[in-house]
Every structure is written in structure tokens, then in C-alpha cells.
Amino acid sequence: MLFRRRKPAGFKEKMRELLWPRKGFLRPLRYLTMRILRLSASPHAVAAGVAAGVFVSWTPFIGVHFVMAFVITYFLSGSMVAAALGCAAFGNPLTYPFIWGITWEIGHLLLSREDHLAGQAVDLAALFHRLNFTELWRPVLEPMLVGAIPPGIVTSVALYALTFYTVKGFQTRRHTRLLERARLRLASPAGDLPSV
């Protein structure tokens, strides 16, 4: 292997890196941010893709988040790469427990089911084992889907605006730098080209 360690990591070091990565927890977030900013699509396309990925991440249909995000992004004329990055950044194993708790509570509040389900226990293991969609819909999926709509709309609209203006500013600054570099290259004689 090309980038293998000379001395393999011991058990203690592996456990430490599992709990606290060497590069920190914010490095993946910075990487995703720079990856989104450097997409060559228009600011609207990037922002629409990110917003679609974030909106879909609120829904309880985990296995098809990327497909749903791609369909929404297609109709919004967005970037598919940005949609995938939005799904991966917002909907991940660290955020799903919070997302599910929020959507569950909002769904029960909107459907006003507090008194109907009081005292009833839902055996999720048996429902998932049988995989009977009709039995799973009413107690689990319906409140989570209904509860996903308000926070999904709020976060996707907010992240659309934030992503749009951030990408627009980044692309404008980058375009200005490239124009200045080209102007300097054209103004200097052939022998005085700056090294890059």
C-alpha cells in the first residue's frame, strides 16, 4: 500500500483516534464546505442541490435519500453533486437520532395524536421484521413524514440562501483573482513571467 504507516498503530492509538480523530472533528465539515464552494456550477444550481439534499434528509426514507434528492434537484435545475453532498453532510449517523426525534414529535403534534397513542406500545422490532408497510405506516412513518415537512422547509430555505450567497461571493472573488493574474501575465514581457 502506498500510504501505509511504517509502524502500525497500536490498540491504544486506535482507540484514541476512534474517540478523537487526529485531524479533529471539523476537518470533514471544512472539506465538504470547500468541495461545495469549488463546484463549477452556477450559485443557484449549487444552492438548489444542497437544499434538496437537506430537505430529503429530514424524511424517514433512508434507503432512497439520494434518489429523492436527485429527482428534486433535476426539477430545480440544480447540481447533482451538490445534492449528494447535502445529503451526506446533513443526514448521517450522527444527526439521524436528532432528526428522527424532532420529526416524530412534530408529526405527533401536527397530527394531534397525543391522546390516541397514549398507553399503546409500538413493537418496532416486530413491525420491521415482518416489513408490512401498512402496519408500519400509521404508527411510525406517517408522523415522521408529516413532521419532516416544517423543519425540512425551514432548513432547506435557510441553507439555500446561505449557500447561494456564499458560492456567489466565492466565485466572484475567484473570477477577479483569475482576471488579475491574466492581466499581469499579459502586461509582463515574455521573460518576466511569474513562477506559479
UniProtKB/TrEMBL annotation:
Keywords: Membrane, Transmembrane, Transmembrane helix. Pfam families: DUF2062 (PF09835). InterPro entries: DUF2062. Residues 26-175 form the DUF2062 domain. It comes from the Bacteria. The chain crosses the membrane at residues 62-87, 144-167. This is DUF2062 domain-containing protein. It comes from Rhizobium leguminosarum bv. trifolii (strain WSM2304).
